[in-house]
Amino acid sequence: MYRSILLTRQWVIVTLIALLLIPTMIRLGIWQMHRYEERSARNQLVTDALSKKSVPVERLTSPGHHVTSSERYRSVTATGRFDTGHEVVVRRRTNADGEVGYHVLTPFVLTDGKVVLVNRGWIPANGPSQTAFPKIPAPAPGRTTVTGRLMPDETTAASGIKDIKDLPDRQIMLINSAREAARLHARVLGGYVAQTAPEPKGDTPELIGRPGKENAPLNFAYAYQWWLFSAAVPVGWVIMLRREARDRREKAGREGEAAEETTAAGV
Questions:
Q1: 126-149: string of b/e by CB count within 10 Å (b at 16+)?
Q2: What value does the mean pLDDT of the chain take?
Q3: I want to staple 76 with a disulfide (CB 3.0 to 4.6 A). Which of 1, 57, 207, 217 is the partner?
Q4: Checking DSSP bridges between strand 171-172 and strand 144-151, what pairing results, if any?
Q5: CA distances from 222 to 38, 40, 42, 43, 232 (A)
Q6: For residue range 197-235, what is the model confidence (pLDDT) as tens digits?
Q7: How deeply is 192 buried, as exposed, middle or buried, from its count of CB atoms within 10 A (0-12, 13-18, 19+)?
Q8: How far are the Cα atoms of 81, 132, 168, 202 from residue 145, in angstroms, in the given order?
Q9: Distance of alpha carbon 170 from its chain centroid, rounded?
Q10: Domain-by-domain residue ranges, the chain?
Q11: C-alpha 84: how far from chain center
Q12: Is 56 exposed, middle or buried (0-12, 13-18, 19+ CB in 10 A)?
């Protein structure tokens, strides 16, 4: 009976679908586990960086330096002055509430003349127009010391943000120290600093310097969920097959009883 069931068109299709679902779900579980490992590693980097004391920014980066994963999020300090005359804004950035606006990128001239780029935080867009330069609150004037998180130069591959050309004046899509060095004609330290202190007056721009941790355990749970689904497919296939066989036996029994009753009535 099982052979006759499995050779029907319906059960051939059901079996093929089951055979496709099992490896697909296993691969999805493996992918989720890889995501869990990646997120756990990133969270560990954040934890390690937050546990270390602040150091002068020039201990970790220099002109042309590529900020490494172990240097990312490290707390650094810089003493000098903000150069608001060469300030730019980074387009299409969101705050914690998902509102779209800008990040304020201000060159910070160190006491030795080198420049470090400081992301002073998020500001809202001024109305529907994205061509006019937004109004930006001024930073602390004169000589000051800022603290922040060291970040690598941004790329489209890492951020998913397309680097659009021919933007309005003083607007950029990605933070790139080499490009800013050419624009400023200065020695710019590699990467940039996401400011964490001092707090701006009026809470604007909104500081973004403290990194958040990703929910790695969620990917771990999804991985095992997919693997449980893959194990459930053959179990479900067997249950459906046995139910089909039972239904056929019951139907055959009913038809046999009806035939016997008809024969008896004819006699």
A1: eeeebeeebebeebeeeeeebbbb
A2: 89
A3: 57
A4: unpaired
A5: 14, 15, 19, 18, 15
A6: 998 887 789 998 667 777 888 999 999 999 999 999 999
A7: buried
A8: 8, 30, 31, 19
A9: 27
A10: 1-16+25-51+214-242, 56-203
A11: 31
A12: exposed
Quick one: tokens of 144?
């000051």
Instruction: Give the model's pLDDT for residue 104.
Output: 97
pLDDT of residue 220: 93
In degrees, to the nearest 5, what angle opens at C-alpha 152 toward C-alphas 147 and 154?
Answer: 120
Question: In angstroms, rounded to a whole number, what is the distance separating the alpha carbons of residues 47 and 55?
Answer: 17
Q: Which residue bears the tokens 């400011």?
A: 195
What is the token pair recorded at 82? 């903000």
Apex 226 CA angle, 220 and 232, nearest 5? 140
Please determine, for residue 252, whether its predicted confidence score (pLDDT) is greater than 80. no
Amino acid at 99: E
Strands 115-124 and 88-94: unpaired
Whether the predicted pLDDT of 267 surpasses 60: no
Q: Whole-angstrom Cα distance, residue 205 to residue 124?
A: 9
Only one residue has tokens 């127009």, namely 129
Q: Tokens at residue 191, please?
A: 């990467």
What's the confidence (pLDDT) of residue 48? Answer: 83
DSSP helix/strand/coil, 3: helix
User: Hey, what's the torsion of the CAs at 136, 142, 144, 147, to 10 degrees?
Assistant: 20
